[in-house]
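A.,

Following up on our hallway conversation. Structure tokens first:
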């Protein structure tokens, strides 16, 4: 692609423009609209936004373009997040494809004239106003995997500054630093970051700026011609299309940009210097005692060399190495390899490849440096550039003789790299040479023809002596602490022993575990017990004073007590592997493990089932739980086939060494083609209500995951009781700007929010009685159903009311009384959006009416025409609502909590809602200015169903789905009492069939994948689990369901028997459906008549009573040191 090829096209993309009501932001928005983009503009001034929207609407090229405006302050994080969330909602919550951050302001002054507040304001208006929006946008893009674009707007002052701009230029400098850092960081997520640096622009803001500007500054800027916002927007758009990281629209800014340019995201500026510095500071890792190059030798010698560490394997050699050996490929100088050949060697298992200087240049950026070693001679070392040094992890230097002074000088050029030295064939290796090179941080390369398993000779060095040469013991006895680890158990430590030079040499040469007993001399492990060890490798630590032996332990174990390790039993995967290996040999016939080993179809089905459940899991706990299940069944298959964990780890290690990668696409039977869906042009009826995504019909099976309570640990059982964590602090920060707007602006804010969230143009915020018949026109069947529900609910809640005071004479002459009084003013929130909810209005309004509340404010979101659904209006009439508030979300809660010009302030707020409503209720209840309480903490809907073999599978499935359809966060739990696999399968089939017949099937699908079936042995276990879970709804399908009710301690509402669906309680049986969720049934009751009342106590004491009680009060008052309390009694007793 040429450099002038258009790289970015806004057509059909959602573009979010801050500062979009005037100036550069509006001019850019016009260009984007003309090019077919969906555009959201954000600014503070609603009037200017309205004017801007009118201009943008006239430029649209398609009726499907979404063009919206939003009024928010972006100088704090909460406002920035709320603005972005609002702009995302017309697109079903999807973050915009591109953020253009044009908002900002400048106030030029001299530094000494600014106070601290002005300096802080300068940073807010120049830096934070864009940084907050970028932070919110990038987090959303990463979370939703949107490969989007962020464009900051700086200034020429981002590159340089001069007098008068001391409170503005620092913010723009900081913004440039942020943009440059993000340009590199965001490549991890495929998000593009650019920055535009305009010069002076002739805008209304610039005119205001000049009114405040000192005369000296005006004089300095006389020659600055500036540019129009339209020209600036064109330059910005052109640079964005071309993919420029730094965009400038005039010559002067371009000159400053070139003069101060820093590193680019891809490091193509100053790369040699940067990478050289990185290589300089990287610490040298521990190196082997020596590096054998295999040029001859028998199998025993080659095996011994591989135990000592990596070996150099000539490319042309035919030597056979033991599995798991670490080797570097040493190419034939006469036949230099290609880049592809190097990759092939690495793919086949080589840890590193030695490459020539010429080949290293070709490999730059293609293969990780840790896999390459550079081959040099003493004459070519000075020809290595910083770029080449950054291409490799080590250097292999060929030299005629071992001159340590020369080698030390050469090594200075390669700090941070491994350094290997290969002398001529005439140079015989010695332990002294190995030690001298080790002190330099270098490793001697020794041809295997110069090594021997026998004693040293003039031409050969014993391999054990070569390994031991650089070791240093800090013990008086000269021994080396040695950690023995199990190669086949993932490196698990078996125990601590000691080694001597003699024992080390014997271990290397024989391949058996040989150590040094501090009392009995050489200790050949297993010589008498049979618990021998195969030594896989030996290595020294970074200080060369401690060893690690990696072994394969045979027999009863390492410890003299006959256990695998000296540090207790195995755990984790090694323990599971050991158990499965034992069960393979001894599992009793008919056991589940035996069935798995013998029934290949069952084992395959379980692996597929657990893999599917792992894919569906989302929370950390669920993912860990499902992964453990999958690993269990997968390892069962491995053990059955004789595959060990060590085999699996070897395969993983081999895969890790590969440098050529397959595309990684799923096989056809697993691949699902996903066609991106264009943004919806329809705005939701209520901005804060989640909607199910419109996707192609999904026929995948809908299933719950199953756990067996008897096999769960205490920690695992506790995890089953947890609900999804609601990020209340985050939601409160989002809703606070909305609440503050309503508190300060009142009705005006409500009207603005109705236009923004509900697409309703309101002239008034409330409807007062009498309510017009036209507003309550209903289908006769619906009206009759509401009337019957009203009668049932009213009857049950009247029975709850306290009709007479509680009067108790606590002692002669002392009478105490408690009586109920209604809460005077209550607010009832009835959600809107995707469902019409007259039932909620009944459940909240009837107990308020029965309790005698004088003022009942019913709040619900309006329809786009400004009206309220007739079902809710009819209920408002039945319950005697004193006002209907046409508002939803956090704004409705705020209006009732604080009151407005037309909305009465209430004393307590009731009703369910989404996260915005819940967060607003939590916020206002803690505000002493509001003086308002709420009914209870709220969370997603939930049901727990207990069923034994008498339960009808169709009924059970229907009960689960009745709650699952509420929302994707609904919690659905089936406690299965002694159900057979066949009965569970029948219930799951019913869930699947019934769910696919529902319109809200996709909501159900998401809810069910987070839900579960808990298998228990009997009714007592089921009830105990339910009491711990404390569900909102509890449905009992047991043979003796009524008897189980006596044991229920924690539940919002209980539904007893096969013919008591939870739906009846939701609508019309008489009980209330506003119930505690999220486990709060342990502490809270559902809404009832008493929820709308408060209790007042009184007491009346006669003279006789005061004579009896007075001395008690005086004694206690004196005990607490409150003399006035006691005196209030004494003066009365004295008067009697």
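Then the amino acids I'd put at each of the 1136 positions:
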């Amino acid at each position: 692609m040429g450099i002038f090829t258009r790289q970015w096209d806004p057509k059909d993309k959602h573009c979010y423009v801050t500062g979009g009501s005037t100036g550069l932001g509006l001019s850019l928005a016009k260009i984007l609209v003309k090019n077919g983009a969906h555009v959201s503009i954000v600014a503070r001034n609603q009037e200017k936004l309205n004017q801007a929207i009118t201009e943008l609407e006239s430029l649209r090229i398609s009726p499907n373009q979404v063009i919206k405006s939003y009024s928010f302050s972006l100088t704090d994080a909460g406002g920035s997040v709320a603005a972005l969330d609002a702009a995302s909602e017309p697109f079903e919550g999807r973050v915009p494809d591109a953020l253009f951050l044009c908002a900002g302001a400048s106030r030029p002054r001299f530094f000494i004239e600014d106070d601290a507040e002005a300096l802080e304001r300068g940073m807010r208006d120049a830096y934070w106003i864009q940084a907050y929006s970028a932070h919110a946008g990038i987090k959303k893009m990463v979370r939703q995997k949107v490969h989007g674009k962020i464009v900051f707007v700086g200034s020429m002052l981002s590159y340089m500054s001069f007098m008068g701009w001391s409170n503005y230029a620092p913010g723009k400098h900081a913004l440039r630093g942020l943009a440059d850092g993000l340009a590199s960081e965001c490549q991890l997520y495929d998000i593009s970051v650019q920055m535009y640096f305009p010069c002076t622009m002739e805008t209304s803001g610039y005119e205001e700026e000049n009114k405040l500007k000192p005369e000296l500054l005006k004089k300095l800027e006389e020659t600055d011609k500036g540019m129009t916002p339209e020209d600036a927007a064109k330059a910005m758009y052109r640079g964005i299309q071309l993919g420029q990281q730094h965009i400038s629209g005039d010559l002067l800014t371009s000159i400053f940009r070139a003069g101060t340019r820093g590193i680019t995201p891809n490091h193509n500026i100053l790369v040699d210097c940067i990478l050289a510095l990185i290589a300089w500071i990287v610490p040298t890792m521990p190196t082997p005692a020596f590096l054998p190059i295999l040029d001859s030798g028998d199998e025993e010698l080659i095996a011994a060399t591989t135990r000592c560490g990596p070996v150099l394997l000539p490319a042309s050699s035919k030597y056979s190495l033991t599995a798991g050996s670490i080797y570097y490929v040493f190419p034939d100088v006469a036949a230099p390899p290609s880049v592809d050949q190097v990759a092939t060697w690495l793919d086949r298992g080589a840890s590193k490849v030695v490459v020539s200087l010429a080949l290293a240049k070709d490999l730059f950026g293609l293969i990780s440096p840790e896999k390459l070693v550079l081959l040099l001679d003493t004459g070519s070392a000075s020809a290595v550039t910083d770029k080449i040094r950054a291409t490799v992890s080590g250097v292999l230097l060929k030299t005629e003789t071992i001159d340590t002074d020369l080698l030390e000088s050469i090594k200075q050029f390669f700090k941070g790299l491994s350094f290997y030295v290969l002398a001529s064939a005439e140079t015989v290796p010695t332990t002294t040479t190995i030690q001298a090179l080790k002190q330099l941080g270098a490793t001697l390369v020794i041809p295997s023809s110069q090594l021997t398993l026998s004693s040293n000779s003039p031409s050969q060095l014993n391999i054990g002596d070569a390994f031991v040469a650089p070791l240093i013991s800090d013990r008086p006895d000269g021994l080396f602490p040695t950690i023995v680890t199990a190669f086949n158990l993932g490196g698990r430590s078996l125990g601590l022993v000691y080694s001597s030079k003699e024992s080390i040499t014997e271990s290397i040469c024989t391949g058996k575990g040989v150590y040094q007993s501090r009392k009995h001399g050489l200790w050949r492990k297993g010589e008498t017990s049979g618990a021998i060890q195969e030594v896989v490798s030996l290595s020294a630590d970074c200080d060369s004073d401690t060893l690690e032996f990696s072994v394969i332990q045979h027999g009863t174990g390492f410890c003299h007590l006959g256990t695998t390790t000296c540090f207790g039993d195995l755990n984790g995967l090694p323990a599971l592997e050991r158990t499965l290996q034992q069960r393979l040999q001894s599992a009793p016939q008919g056991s589940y493990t035996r069935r798995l080993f013998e029934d290949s179809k069952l084992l395959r089905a379980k692996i597929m089932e657990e893999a599917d459940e792992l894919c569906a899991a989302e929370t950390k706990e669920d993912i860990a739980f499902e992964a453990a299940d999958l690993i269990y069944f997968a390892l069962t298959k491995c053990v059955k086939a004789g595959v060990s964990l060590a085999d699996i780890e070897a395969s993983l290690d081999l895969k890790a060494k590969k440098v050529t990668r397959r595309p990684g696409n799923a096989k056809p039977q697993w691949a699902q083609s996903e066609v991106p869906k264009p943004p919806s042009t329809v705005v939701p009826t209520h901005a804060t209500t989640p909607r199910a995504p419109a996707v192609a019909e999904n026929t995948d099976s809908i299933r719950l995951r199953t756990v067996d309570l008897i096999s769960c640990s205490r920690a695992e059982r506790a995890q089953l009781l947890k609900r999804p964590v609601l990020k209340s602090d985050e939601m409160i920060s989002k809703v606070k700007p909305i609440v503050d707007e309503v508190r300060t602006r009142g009705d005006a804010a409500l009207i603005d929010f109705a236009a923004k969230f509900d697409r309703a143009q309101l002239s008034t915020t409330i409807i007062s009685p009498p309510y017009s018949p036209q507003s309550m026109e209903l289908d006769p069947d619906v009206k009759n159903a509401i009337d019957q529900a009203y009668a049932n609910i009213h009857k049950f809640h009247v029975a709850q009311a306290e009709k007479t005071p509680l009067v108790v004479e606590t002692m002669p002459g002392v009478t105490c009384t408690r009586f109920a009084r209604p809460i005077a003013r209550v607010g009832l929130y009835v959600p809107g959006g995707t469902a019409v909810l007259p039932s909620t209005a009944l459940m909240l309004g009837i107990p308020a009416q029965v309790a005698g509340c004088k003022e009942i404010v019913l709040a619900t979101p309006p329809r786009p025409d400004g009206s309220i659904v007739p079902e809710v209006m009819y209920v408002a009439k039945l319950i005697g609502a004193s006002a209907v508030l046409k508002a939803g979300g956090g704004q409705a809660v705020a209006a009732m909590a604080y009151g407005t010009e037309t909305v009465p302030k209430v004393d307590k707020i009731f009703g369910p809602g989404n996260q915005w409503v819940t967060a607003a209720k939590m916020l206002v209840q803690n505000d002493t200015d509001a003086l308002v309480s709420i009914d209870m903490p709220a969370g997603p809907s939930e049901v727990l169903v207990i069923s034994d073999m008498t339960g009808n599978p169709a009924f059970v499935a229907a009960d689960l789905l009745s709650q699952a359809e509420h929302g994707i966060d609904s919690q659905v739990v089936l406690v299965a009492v002694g159900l057979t696999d066949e009965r569970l399968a029948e219930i799951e089939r019913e869930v699947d069939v019934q769910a696919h017949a529902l319109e809200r099937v996709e909501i159900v699908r998401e809810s069910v994948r987070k839900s579960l079936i808990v298998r228990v042995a009997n009714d007592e276990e089921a009830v105990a689990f339910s009491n711990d879970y404390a569900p909102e709804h509890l449905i009992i399908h047991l043979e003796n369901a009524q008897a189980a009710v006596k044991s229920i301690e924690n539940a919002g509402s209980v539904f007893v028997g096969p013919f008591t669906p939870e739906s009846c309680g939701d609508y019309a049986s008489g009980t209330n459906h506003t119930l505690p969720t999220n486990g709060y049934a342990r502490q809270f009751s559902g809404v009832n008549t008493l929820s709308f009342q408060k209790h007042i106590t009184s007491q009346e004491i006669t003279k006789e009573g005061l004579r009896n009680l007075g001395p008690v009060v005086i004694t206690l008052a004196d005990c607490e040191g409150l003399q006035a309390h006691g005196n209030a009694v004494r003066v009365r007793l004295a008067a009697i």
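The CA atoms of residues 969 and 1007 lie 6 Å apart. Curious whether your intuition agrees with the design.

B.
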